[in-house]
Each structure stands twice: as C-alpha cells, then as structure tokens.
Amino acid sequence: MAVIMNGKELGVKIREGIKIKSETLRKKGIIPCLAVVLVGEDPASLSYVNSKEKALHEASMESRDIRLPANTSEAELLTLITDLNKDDKIHGILVQLPLPKHINEENIISAIDPKKDVDCFHPVSVGNMVLGKKGFLPCTPHGVLMLLKEYNIPTAGAKVVVVGRSNIVGKPLANLLIRKEYNATVTICHTGTKDMVSHTLQADILIAAAGVPEFIKPEMVKDGAVVIDVGINRVNDTAAKKGYRLCGDVDPAAAEKASFFTPVPGGVGPMTIAMLLQNVVEAAG
Questions:
Q1: The CATH homologous superfamily of the domain defined by 29-113
Q2: Fewest C-beta atoms under 10 Å: which of 3, 93, 135, 137?
C-alpha cells in the first residue's frame, strides 16, 4: 500500500513560514495584498475564491475582494486591471477563471502586470519560466514539485508521464521537470495519444491532470510508481450529503500498486494555495 503524500500537512508548514515573512514585511510598513477578482457567481469559483481569501488572512496578508456581476463587459474588466496594476498597495492580481463567455480570457491575462502575475499565466511569466529566468512559478506545478521534494522522491533520470496538456498544469509542469535541477525525462499524454497505457506503465512518476474523474485505473500504473493526482472533480452521488462527492483523476484503488500516492482532497490542492501565498509574499518583498 502506498505512502499517502499529505499536501494539507505540508501546506500548513509552508504557510507558517510565509506568515513569518509577511509579518516581517508588515514591520517595515509593507502589507502583502492580493487583489482577487471574481466575475459572476459560479459556485466552484466562489468556493475557490473564499478558500484563497481565508488562507491570505491566516498568513497575515490582506485581500482586495472584488466581486463583479456576470454581465460585466470586457472593457470594464480591463479598466479595473489597469487600475490595479497602478495601485502600489496591490502586490498580486488574481482573476478567477473561467470568465463569462463574452470575455476573452487571453486579453484579461495579458493585461495583468507580469510583476503582479502571481498565477504565472501572463505570456511573459510563462516565457521566463520556460527559459529558466527569475520570476513566479505556476502554483499547482510548483506545489507538485514541493511534494516530491518533501517526500524525497528523486526526479533525476526518472521517467515522468504527465497525463494532460493544459496551460495551467500539464505544459508548465513538464517544462519545470526537464530543468537541470530536476533532470527528469518527461512524456506528455493527451487525447491524441495512441495506446496511452503503454506510456503510463513506464512511468516512475505518473502525474494525472486530465480533468476526467478516476481516468487512471490501477492497470495503468506500474508497480511501485509515484502517483500524483492533480484532478479535483465533482461527481454526482445521491448517497452523499451534498448530492455529490469530490474525486481525482486517479482511481483510489491505484494506491495499492503505487509507492506514493496523493489523496483527493488533501493532496495537491492545499499545495496550490500555499504556492500562491508564497508568490504574493515574494511580490511584496
């Protein structure tokens, strides 16, 4: 049975260190502040935003909570971002995605000052990451790397298979893992991959970020592999109190074959928030 990689516990430890840094900055008259912009009332987005704001306050930071109606125009949102870019008291800007369909997400992301792009979505931020230049690291991929480090899982020479090619997780994680400090050999699998199982069975480290509930089955996992489940999905469940349950992209039964395994919830999710806070405090400092 796999060792469970406790992201919640590690996240708390990291956030304690961030709080100390934040309080040090406060003594210098600098109050780390993140502007959190939510357009519309998507329940999942609202939940994410509330959890981020709670974490900010616990880490002795401040949040500029900006809630806008779903019919907010793209021009209005761009004007807001311009104002936030100019505000010296704002150190980071987070626009919760997805945005309403009438707003072009790329235009909004590109409008954020890269110095305040704590999500690392701006083209300049992504370019710096790919080239290995100084800058923010994307929160979820960075959280995965911190988990691997915490559990002393070697990446040098390891065969890593990432299932999923999103701009938020799959692509940046692959780019980070091929850096010399990680030195992994990376394969990205996606909807166009033929015979995906032949690839996943070779993985020393298998990272699932496909956004498909329990897509990775036990028979797709090599004995002794490290399995990182980035997915978090709501699945209808009449037996559950809320009418749904949360699950990852990996069938929990795969833990019986893995050497290390991240739970959902409590694995990668808390690490994402911890890395966001770290980016904010770095932006402030």
A1: Leucine Dehydrogenase, chain A, domain 1 (3.40.50.10860)
A2: 3
